[in-house]
C-alpha cells in the first residue's frame, strides 16, 4: 500500500493496482473514473471530490479495467477485487520495498486521521 | 478597429453599431477631401456587405467564412424581448441563488472577498470595454500604461522581477509557468529536465498542468500534521537529480497552514537542479507579510479573481497572471500577432491564451484595488484575513475539531473543520451540515476539499465581526442539533439535518408529518425573522444518482439537428432523448 492510498499486487512481473478500502470509504460514492498511462494514471470522481490516482510502481500499463467506466461503483463495492484499476508490467520489483504492508498502512491511516 | 495585415493591406472590422455614415467617413479619410466618395460608390461598397454576421468586402472570402449553422436556437433566447420581461427574468434567476448579497460565502480556497463597486465601474467605460485585443498599441496608450503599472505592482507584491498578464486562469498560469521552466532548462542545455514533484495535497490543477506541459509527475506525501513530507521530498529530488525540472508547492499549504519547512523545501529542489513553482491560490495570506520570492520560489501565479478582487462566477473570466525571477523573465510568453511589450522577442515562449494580454478588459478592477489599497492597505488586508480566520477557528474549536494547525496552534487565512467524527456519533455527514446551513441563510463552506468529510472555511478580510459571529452562531447551533441526534432525542433519519434544506413548499404544505416543528425546520435562528428568509429552491437531491446520470436540459441534439437540416430525427434517438428530457424536468 502507498501513502497516497493505492494498493499493488504483484503476480509474475505484473502488478495489479487499485485504491484501498479506506480511500474508497473516504471518497464516498464513486461516480466516475478515468484511467490512462502516466505516473498519475487516472482519476476517480466521487460525489465529494475528484482525486488523482498515483501508480505506486513504475512500468508499462498493459491493461485498464474497462468495467469501471460503465460501473464505477465497483470501486466502492470491492476495492481490492473487482474494483482494480490498471495492470502494470513492473520495471523494478524492488520498488515494492518502498511501500507498506497492510499493518504499516493501517498505522499510516490512523496517523493521518489523528 | 483596424490592423495591418501587410505593408500594403489593412483589415477593417465593423460591428453592428456602425452605419453607412461611418463607412463614408472611412472612405473619405483614405481618399482625402479632394476626391469625395459619391453616393453610388458608397452604395456599391455597402451592397457587397451582407446584412449581418461576417462581413467582408471580398465576396469569395465572405462566402467561405459565413456562418452556415443556426445559432441561439434555444427558446430562452427568444422569450424575453422587452426590457420588463428581461429584467424580471434575470431577477428570477438571481433570486434562486444564495449569493454575497445575502450573506458571507465562506468557501475555503476561493477567497470570496468584496468586489467593490468603485473597482468595477471602469470596466463598463467604453475606453476599456470596446477595444479589440489586437488593436495596434499606439491606439491603446492608456491600456498599455495600465499593463505596465500592473506588471510592476504584481512584481512588488510577489517579490519577483517580471510578470505576464496573459494566462486566463490559475491553471493556465501554472501551465505557462512550467513551460517557462522548460524553456529555461532547454536554454541551458538541460532539456532532459522533465520531472515535476507535486505533493499529494496539491490543488488538482497542479498535476494536470504538469502533465499538459509534458512533464513526468512524481507525487510526494504529507506527514501526520498535513505538511509536505520533507524526507520523502528530499529522497525523490535526489533520486531524480539529473531530470528534476520543477516542484509545485502551495503556500500557505492547501491545509491552511504556514508550513515552516517551506524554505528548506525550496532549497532541496534548487540543490537538485529544479525550480520551484509556488501556487498563488493562497496569496491572500501573504500580501505585505511575505511573498513567493521571499520563501525561495522561482515563479508563481496570482489568481487575480481571488486575492485581487475580480469577481468569481458565471464561469469567468478569471486572470492567472504569473510572476517570475530575473533568470526566467526572458522566457515569459509573447504573442505572434501582437508581441507583448515587456516580453523578450528572441527567447519568449509562444502564447498560452488567444489574446496577448489575456482577459485585459477586467484588469482595471485589479488596478483600482491595488491603487486604492496601497501597500499598507494590502498588508492590512492579509493581516485581517488571517485574524478573521483565527477568530472563527477559536470560536468554533470548542464544538468542532480543527484538522490542521501550525506549531503555534494557529491557522493561516483559512481552516478545516473535521466533521468525520459525527458520521459515527450521529450518522451526520459534511453534506448534511452544508445543506442545513441553507436553512440558516448561509452558503456552505468548501466541502470535502482538500480532505474528504470536512468543511473548509475562509472568511477573507471583507467580512465584519457581526457577520463572522452570525456564521459561527449558525455552526454552533447546528452542533447542538447534532447533539440532539447523538443523545437520541431526534430521530437519526427524520431530523432537520437529514431533511435539509427545507423549501417554502415543504414547510407551507398542508401535510406535515415530520417529528419536529416547522419553525425548527425553516426558522432555526432569530435573525431569520428580522433579516428575512432566503428560501432554498429545492429539497435534498440524490447526489449519487445525479452524478451517475448526467442530463443536458437543452433541447435534445437530434431535435436541434432536425431544426437545422429539416430532417426527422431517428426513432431510437428521439425516444432516448425524450426519456432524458423527462428525467431533467422531474
Automatic annotation (TrEMBL), chain A:
GO cellular component term of the entry, any: mitochondrion
CDD domains (alphabetical): GCS_H
N6-lipoyllysine modified-residue sites: 48
Keywords: Lipoyl, Mitochondrion, Transit peptide
InterPro entries assigned: 2-oxoA_DH_lipoyl-BS (IPR003016), Biotin_lipoyl (IPR000089), GCV_H (IPR002930), GCV_H/Fam206 (IPR033753), GCV_H_sub (IPR017453), Single_hybrid_motif (IPR011053)
Biological process terms in GO annotation: glycine decarboxylation via glycine cleavage system; protein lipoylation
Cofactor comment: Binds 1 lipoyl cofactor covalently.
Cofactor: (R)-lipoate
Coiled-coil regions listed in the entry: none
Lipoyl-binding domain residues: 5-89
Keyword Mitochondrion on entry: yes
Subcellular localization(s) per the UniProt record: Mitochondrion
Pfam family membership, one: GCV_H
Keyword Mitochondrion assigned: yes
Family of the protein in this entry: Belongs to the GcvH family.
Quaternary context: The glycine cleavage system is composed of four proteins: P, T, L and H.
Protein task: The H protein shuttles the methylamine group of glycine from the P protein to the T protein.
Full protein name: Glycine cleavage system H protein
TrEMBL record, chain B:
Co-factor(s): pyridoxal 5'-phosphate
Residues covered by region (Disordered): 562-586
Keywords: Oxidoreductase, Pyridoxal phosphate
Keyword Acyltransferase: no
Coiled-coil region: none
Gene3D superfamilies, per database record: Aspartate Aminotransferase, domain 1, Type I PLP-dependent aspartate aminotransferase-like (Major domain)
UniProt-recorded name of the protein: glycine dehydrogenase (aminomethyl-transferring)
Amino acid at each position: 500500500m502507498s501513502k497516497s492510498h493505492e494498493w499493488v499486487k504483484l503476480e509474475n512481473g505484473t502488478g495489479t493496482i487499485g485504491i484501498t478500502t479506506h480511500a474508497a470509504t473516504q471518497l464516498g460514492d464513486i461516480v466516475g473514473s478515468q484511467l490512462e498511462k502516466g505516473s498519475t494514471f487516472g482519476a476517480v470522481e466521487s460525489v465529494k471530490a475528484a482525486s488523482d490516482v498515483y501508480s505506486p510502481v513504475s512500468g508499462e500499463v498493459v491493461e485498464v479495467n474497462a468495467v469501471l467506466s460503465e460501473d464505477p461503483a465497483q470501486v466502492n463495492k470491492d476495492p481490492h477485487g473487482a474494483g482494480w484499476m490498471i495492470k502494470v508490467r513492473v520495471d523494478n520489483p524492488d520498488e515494492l520495498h518502498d511501500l507498506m504492508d497492510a499493518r504499516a498502512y493501517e498505522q499510516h491511516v490512523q496517523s493521518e486521521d489523528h | 478597429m483596424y490592423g495591418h495585415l501587410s505593408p500594403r493591406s489593412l483589415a477593417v472590422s465593423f460591428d453592428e453599431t456602425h452605419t453607412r455614415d461611418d463607412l463614408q467617413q472611412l472612405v473619405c479619410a483614405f481618399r482625402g477631401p479632394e476626391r469625395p466618395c459619391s453616393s453610388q460608390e458608397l452604395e456599391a461598397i455597402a451592397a457587397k456587405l451582407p446584412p449581418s454576421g461576417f462581413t467582408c468586402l471580398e465576396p469569395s472570402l465572405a462566402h467561405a467564412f459565413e456562418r452556415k449553422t443556426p445559432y441561439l436556437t434555444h427558446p430562452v433566447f427568444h422569450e424575453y424581448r422587452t426590457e420588463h420581461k428581461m429584467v424580471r427574468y434575470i431577477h428570477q434567476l438571481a433570486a434562486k441563488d444564495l449569493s454575497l448579497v445575502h450573506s458571507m460565502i465562506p468557501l475555503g480556497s476561493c477567497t470570496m472577498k468584496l468586489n467593490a463597486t468603485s473597482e468595477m465601474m471602469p470596466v463598463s467605460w467604453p475606453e476599456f470595454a470596446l477595444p479589440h485585443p489586437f488593436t495596434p498599441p499606439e491606439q491603446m496608450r492608456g491600456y498599455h500604461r495600465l499593463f505596465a503599472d500592473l506588471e510592476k505592482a504584481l512584481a512588488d507584491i510577489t517579490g519577483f522581477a517580471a510578470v505576464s498578464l496573459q494566462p486566463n486562469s490559475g491553471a493556465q498560469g501554472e501551465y505557462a509557468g512550467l513551460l517557462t521552466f522548460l524553456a529555461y532548462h532547454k536554454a541551458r542545455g538541460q532539456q532532459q529536465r522533465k520531472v515535476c514533484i507535486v505533493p499529494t495535497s496539491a490543488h488538482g490543477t497542479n498535476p494536470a498542468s504538469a502533465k499538459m506541459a509534458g512533464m513526468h509527475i512524481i507525487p510526494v506525501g504529507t506527514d501526520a500534521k498535513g505538511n509536505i513530507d520533507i524526507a520523502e521530498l528530499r529522497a525523490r529530488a535526489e533520486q531524480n537529480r539529473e531530470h528534476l525540472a520543477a516542484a509545485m508547492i502551495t503556500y500557505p499549504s492547501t491545509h491552511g497552514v504556514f508550513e515552516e519547512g517551506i524554505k528548506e523545501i525550496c532549497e532541496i529542489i534548487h540543490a537538485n537542479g529544479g525550480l520551484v513553482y509556488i501556487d498563488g491560490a493562497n496569496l491572500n495570506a501573504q500580501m505585505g507579510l511575505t511573498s513567493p520570492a521571499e520563501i525561495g520560489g522561482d515563479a508563481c501565479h496570482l489568481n487575480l479573481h481571488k486575492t485581487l478582487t475580480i469577481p468569481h462566477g458565471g464561469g469567468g473570466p478569471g486572470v492567472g497572471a504569473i510572476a517570475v525571477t530575473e533568470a526566467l523573465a526572458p522566457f515569459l510568453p509573447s504573442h505572434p500577432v501582437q508581441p507583448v511589450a515587456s516580453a523578450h522577442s528572441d527567447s519568449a515562449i509562444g502564447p498560452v491564451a488567444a489574446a496577448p494580454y489575456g482577459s485585459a478588459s477586467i484588469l482595471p478592477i485589479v488596478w483600482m484595488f491595488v491603487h486604492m489599497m496601497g501597500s499598507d492597505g494590502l498588508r492590512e488586508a492579509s493581516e485581517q484575513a488571517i485574524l478573521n480566520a483565527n477568530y472563527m477557528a477559536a470560536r468554533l474549536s470548542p464544538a468542532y475539531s480543527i484538522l490542521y494547525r501550525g506549531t503555534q496552534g494557529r491557522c493561516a487565512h483559512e481552516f478545516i473543520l473535521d466533521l468525520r467524527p459525527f458520521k459515527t456519533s450521529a450518522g451526520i455527514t459534511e453534506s448534511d451540515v452544508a445543506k442545513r446551513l441553507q436553512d440558516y441563510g448561509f452558503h456552505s463552506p468548501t466541502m470535502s476539499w482538500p480532505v474528504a468529510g470536512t468543511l473548509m472555511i475562509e472568511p477573507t478580510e471583507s467580512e465584519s465581526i457581526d457577520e463572522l459571529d452570525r456564521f459561527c452562531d449558525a455552526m454552533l447551533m447546528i452542533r447542538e442539533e447534532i447533539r440532539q441526534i447523538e443523545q437520541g432525542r431526534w430521530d437519526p433519519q427524520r431530523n432537520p439535518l437529514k431533511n435539509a434544506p427545507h423549501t417554502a413548499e415543504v414547510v407551507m404544505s398542508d401535510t406535515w408529518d415530520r417529528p419536529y416543528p416547522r419553525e425548527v425546520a425553516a426558522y432555526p435562528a432569530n435573525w431569520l425573522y428580522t433579516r428575512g428568509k432566503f428560501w432554498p429552491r429545492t429539497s435534498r437531491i440524490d447526489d449519487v444518482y445525479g452524478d451517475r446520470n448526467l442530463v443536458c436540459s437543452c433541447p435534445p441534439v437530434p431535435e436541434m439537428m432536425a431544426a437545422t437540416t429539416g430532417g426527422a430525427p431517428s426513432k431510437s434517438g428521439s425516444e432516448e432523448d425524450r426519456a432524458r428530457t423527462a428525467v431533467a424536468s422531474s
